[in-house]
Each structure stands twice: as structure tokens, then as C-alpha cells.
Amino acid sequence: MGGHDAGSQHQFTGIAKYFNAYTITGRRNCVLLTYASLLGIGLFFKLKPKKQAAVAEKS
Amino acid sequence: LVLSFFDQFLSPTFLGIPLIAVALALPWVMFPALPSQWLPNRQLLLQSWFINRFTQQLLLPLNTGGHKWALLFASLMLFLITLNMLGLLPYTFTPTTQLSLNLGLAVPLWLATVIIGLRNQTTVALGHLLPEGTPTPLIPVLVIIETISLFIRPLALGVRLTANLTAGHLLIQLIATAAFVLLPLMPTVAALTAVLLLLLTLLEVAVAMIQAYVFVLLLSLYLQENI
Asked: Where would you find the membrane-spanning parts of this chain (chain B) (predicted)?
């Protein structure tokens, strides 16, 4: 159940060599990229400065 | 007079001592240790046959690394099946109706399988979070869905056992009360309700055994993925 994919029959080139949904390393990299993106989006909104809202309120 | 149908699920205490500790220790006295004789008596023979057969069946799909878990799975199965079955006796307290106990069993064991998987085969464990052959636009969505389903597992394990046992006990009490109340009013209906109660009790015996087995089986499946 859920055997390891040898990935020998897939010949990827370019970015698909590292990020694909067939080889186990490709899947791992996709998962890590998704987590990193979510973390990045979360950090972006958390650390975003709110100066524009304060200026609009004042005027 | 039964004031609330949920009183049977209150964790019993006596002079401040939580009696759930006694209820949890009770299965230990039901299974005597094997003496040095090969064939001691019928009960011990049956008991050891059951334990050996169950452990053998459960460990079939696991590799050698998973065999270390044999003692844990066998003892967990015996523990749960004994607690569930004893709870079907009238006026007994069933510890496995307490969500705290079931989550206390499910979360550490599930977490152990996840940590083993991440530690020993990190790439494979992480790669499992994306099904093979997923179309590219669906990859982020599926990663999120698979992560959520991973974290839902211990909750589902604990809540499944709690809900099944609680619902069964509640139904038994409701139908028994109905049969008892209807007896002076409509004896025929009360008799039919009593027949229904008998069938329900048989069902609950099956559910008690099946739910214990499902708990341990799912844990062994989670271990299979990670070992």
C-alpha cells in the first residue's frame, strides 16, 4: 500500500525535474513549496505596515 | 428515578477519589498470567490462542520494524475490548465513553507514527501528502486537503470510539426506559420494545468488539504508512 515510486519511467526536464506529481522527491518538493508559500503569505499579511489606513483616517 | 439520561456518563468519584482509575485497572485482573505449563486450562488456552492469532493477523502487512509494536497493539486491543464489553453490564461505568480517555490514547499513538515516519523516511512521509498523478493546478489544494486529513486522524480515532459507545449506551437506556414505562400501559408494545432492546444489546456487543478492533487496526495502518 503506497509503495515507493522508482520514477525511472518519467524523464522530466526543466523545473518539472524538481517539482512534479510523479516521483517521490517531486511530490515532496511540491509539498514543501506549498507550505513555504502559505508561510510566506501569512508572514506577508502579518508584517504588512498599516500606515495607509492611519493616514486615510486622519484626513 | 433517572433524572438525566447522561448521568451514566459522569466520571464517578467517591470521597474525592476518581473511580475511573479502578475501572481502568479492572481489565488487568481479567487476564491471568500464563503459568509455565504448555496447556494450563481451557480459559487460558482460549485467551492465549486469541492473543496470538490476533497479533499475527494484525502484524501481517507490517514490515520487521513494525513488529516492535506487537505488544502495544495486542495490549491496547485487549484493554479496549474488555472495557467496552464490561460497560455493557447494567449499572457499570464505561471509561471509553470519555472523550478525554480516547483522545489520550489516540493522539500520542498517532503522533508517534507521524514522528517515526518523518524521522526515518522524511521524503516518503512528506511525499505522501500529495497523491501521485495530481494535475498541476490542483497541487496546492490537494496538499492542504491532505494535511488537514492527516491532522483530523487522531480526532476521528478518538471521537469514533467515544461516539459509538456513548450512542449505544444512550440508546439502550432510552429503549429500556420506554419498555419499562409502557409495561402497565400497553403490554404488547412493551414486549415488542423488549425484543428491540434484546436485538440492540446484541448489536452493542458487536459494536463494542468492532470499535476496539477498528481503533487498533487504523493505528496499525497509520504505522504501515510510516515505518
From this structure: 12-31, 69-89, 101-118, 138-159, 171-199, 205-223
A22/B123 CB distance under 8 A: no
Q: Per residue, what are the HEC states of chain B?
A: CCCCCCHHHCCCEECCEECHHHHHHHHHHHCCCCCCCCCCCHHHHHHHHHHHHHHHHHHCCCCHHHHHHHHHHHHHHHHHHHHHHHCCCCCCCCHHHCHHHHHHHHHHHHHHHHHHHHHHCHHHHHHCCCCCCCCHHHHHHHHHHHHHHHHHHHHHHHHHHHHHHHHHHHHHHHHHHHHHHHCCCCHHHHHHHHHHHHHHHHHHHHHHHHHHHHHHHHHHHHHHHHC
Domain of residue B146 covers 19-30+42-226
Q: Structural domain tally of chain A?
A: 1
Q: Which residues 16-45 of A have a C-beta within 8 angstroms of B?
A: 21-22, 24-25, 27-28, 30-32, 34-35, 37-38
> What would the pLDDT profile of B149-174 be if each residue is shown by its tens digit?
999 999 999 999 999 999 999 999 99
Q: Is residue B2 part of a domain?
A: no
pTM (2 decimals)? Answer: 0.89
